[in-house]
Amino acid sequence: MTTAPDSRVVHVRAPGKINVFLAVGAQADDGYHDVAIAYQAVSLYEDVRVSDAPDFSVALSGSVDLARVPTDGSNIAIRAARLLAARTGYRRGAHIDIEKHVPVTGGMGGGSADAAAALVACDTLWGTDVGRDELLVLAAELGADVPFALTGGTAIGTGRGDQLSPALAKGSFEWVLVLSDAGLSTPEVYRELDEHRARHAQDIFPARVAPTVDVDVLQALRAGEPRMLAEVLSNDLQAAALNLEPSLAGVLELGESHGALAGIVSGSGPTVAFLAADVNAALQLQIALSATRHTVVRATGPVHGARVISG
Ligand code: ATP
Questions:
Q1: Which end of the chain is more exposed for a tag (fewer CB within 10 A), N or C?
Q2: pLDDT at 5
Q3: Could you report how far apart the first and last alpha carbons of the chain are, in Å?
Q4: Which domain holds residue 14?
Q5: What is the pTM of this model?
Q6: What is the CATH number of the domain that holds 150?
Q7: What's the gap in Å between 298 CA and the centre of ligand 1?
């Protein structure tokens, strides 16, 4: 007996990410910034399950605070499904179940992972089979971090972050993440950076127009050496995130005083990512930081991008 098509559920898992390097270029006339990012996908996942429906809807569950996630058509997973339907002429909808484990507005690309997962899941459920290249085009239309959530692994992103090239990477890195309830809006953090640069224009070098990822970062990733990578973690948005959320400075100090090799604000924050020497050191650090009443999770990277788990 075959399963009726309308009872099928396609389950896709997509990862969150850490930017181990993020350089922000000068603001262009259209208000956007060119960036240079070294992305690493980590083992904090969004599980997205889609099933056939006459229209589009979303339901949320998961281990993180869901209060800031919309459940109407502005949810990026619905936008992704609608975009795929429009591009392929598909006429029905989808019910999208999102089980979230990536902190919301945490600077780890949770929404982007949902969008990438929804694209892959709907393409599989609907049999539209648009192919990898077209999925990447649709992903870039949805957001700068969405193409990386499709590819996963380790990659360099330039332009808005969406022009991806794979980076050679060896081994795996152990991360300890301190989550925050606060949430920081990415556009606000960029605005703060622009204001900071304008205030200090006399004292700092002007931002590069087309920034690049430092070769030291590429070397550390290629070597798979956490100690090398710890030396070169860098995020141009960190100072701006600290200005908006000063308590993060204390979190960074706390981790470094409890044995982390280095700590960095992840993307636009407020999640703080600590790199540990190995899995034992990561466990110790997780225990120490949990005792200070922070919400702490461990993750390993790099991991795969969005892929079908079942269905
Ligand atoms: P990034 O690191 O890519 O800048 P982020 O991890 O800081 O993003 P997200 O959790 O992806 O932030 O959410 C950003 C905003 O998008 C939130 O304000 C939220 O209201 C909105 N949003 C829309 N759809 C989703 C979704 N499926 N999951 C999370 N947020 C969503």
A1: N
A2: 55
A3: 16
A4: 1-311
A5: 0.93
A6: 3.30.230.10
A7: 21
